[in-house]
Design a protein that fits this description.
By secondary structure, the chain is an alpha/beta fold. Helix content is 40%, strand content 16%. The chain contains 8 helices and 9 strands. It has a 7-stranded parallel sheet with strand order 4-3-2-1-9-6-5. A two-stranded antiparallel sheet has the order 7-8. Strand 5, helix 6 and strand 6 form a beta-alpha-beta unit. The chain is globular. The two termini are 17 Å apart.
Length: 246
C-alpha cells in the first residue's frame, strides 16, 4: 500500500505556513520541520500532538541552516558540520515525540539539502552519519545517490514521488522557493501513473523513471489540503492505498 506523506509543521512564531489541521486527515506520515527552515519549539510540539490525535506517524524533516531562505537555497557545508546540524535538529524533534509517547518513524531531508544529497556523495553520507544515531528509514528518490548510498550504509530506503512538484528532463526535482498551485485531480492521475508504470512526464515531455512507495504533498502548496484529500480518495478507490487510521 502506498503511503501519503506531507512536509509540514513549518509555521514560525506568529507566522503561519500551511493548513496542517486540514491536511492531517488525508495522510499516513508527517515530515515535521525541525526549526532550521521553518517551525520552532512551540510549533514542533503542537504538530506532534496534532499528528498523534490523528494517528499519523511522524518523521524528522531537517534542513540546511537557512531559516530566511526556507531551506531552499544551497550552501557549502562540510560533512561533519552537516551531520552535527542534522543530529541537533532530529534530536530536538525526538524529544517532543518522547514527550508524547511517540517514536521517530523516519528521516527526510528538506528542500535543497534533499537535492544536494541526490548528487553529492559527502552530503548523502552526512545524512547517513546522522541517521546512524537514530536508526530509522530514510526517504528519497530512485535513480539518485539516495537509492545507492543510503542502502550501502545500512539504512532502509523508502522511495518517494512528488504529487505537487515538476521533474526536469534529467530526472531531478524542480525545487522552487514558492510552490505554485496544482490541479488536484491531474496530480492524482500523475501519481497513479507513477505507481503503476513507474514513470512521470518531465516538463519537457520526457518519461522519467520513478518509484512511489510513498507520495509527498507539500503543506505550503496552495490548496494542499484539497490535493491531499483528492489524492487519498483516488488511491483508495483504485486499491493502491488504504484510508489513514484516525
Amino acid at each position: 500500500m502506498v503511503l501519503i506523506n506531507c512536509d509540514m509543521g513549518e509555521s514560525f512564531g506568529i507566522w503561519r505556513m500551511g493548513d496542517d489541521a486540514g491536511i492531517m486527515p488525508s495522510i499516513h506520515i508527517a515530515n515535521v520541520a525541525c526549526g532550521f527552515h521553518g517551525s520552532d519549539f512551540n510549533h514542533m510540539r503542537s504538530t506532534v500532538r496534532l499528528a498523534k490525535s490523528h494517528g499519523v506517524r511522524v518523521g524528522a524533516h531537517p534542513s540546511l541552516p537557512d531559516l530566511q531562505g526556507f531551506g531552499r537555497r544551497e550552501m557549502k557545508i562540510g560533512r561533519e558540520e552537516l551531520a552535527n546540524c542534522l543530529i541537533y535538529q532530529i534530536g530536538a524533534l525526538k524529544g517532543f515525540l518522547d514527550a508524547e509517547g511517540m517514536v521517530l518513524n523516519h528521516i527526510k531531508p528538506h528542500g535543497s539539502l534533499y537535492g544536494m544529497a541526490a548528487r553529492q556523495p559527502d552530503i548523502a553520507h552526512a545524512i547517513c552519519d546522522a541517521a546512524d544515531v537514530f536508526k530509522v528509514p530514510l526517504l528519497g528518490m530512485v535513480e539518485t545517490l539516495h537509492a545507492t548510498v543510503y542502502p550501502q550504509r545500512g539504512h532502509a530506503f523508502i522511495p518517494e514521488f512528488y504529487a505537487d512538484l515538476d521533474y526536469a528532463d534529467d530526472g531531478t526535482l524542480i525545487i522552487t522557493r514558492e510552490h505554485p498551485p496544482v490541479d488536484p485531480r491531474l496530480a492524482a492521475q500523475r501519481c497513479l501513473r507513477a505507481i503503476r508504470e513507474g514513470l512521470v512526464s518531465s516538463v519537457g515531455g520526457v518519461d522519467i523513471r520513478v518509484r512511489a512507495d510513498t507520495i509527498c504533498v507539500h503543506s505550503d502548496t496552495p490548496g494542499a489540503d484539497e490535493v491531499a484529500r483528492v489524492l487519498c480518495e483516488t488511491l483508495v478507490a483504485e486499491g493502491v492505498s488504504s484510508l489513514p487510521v484516525h
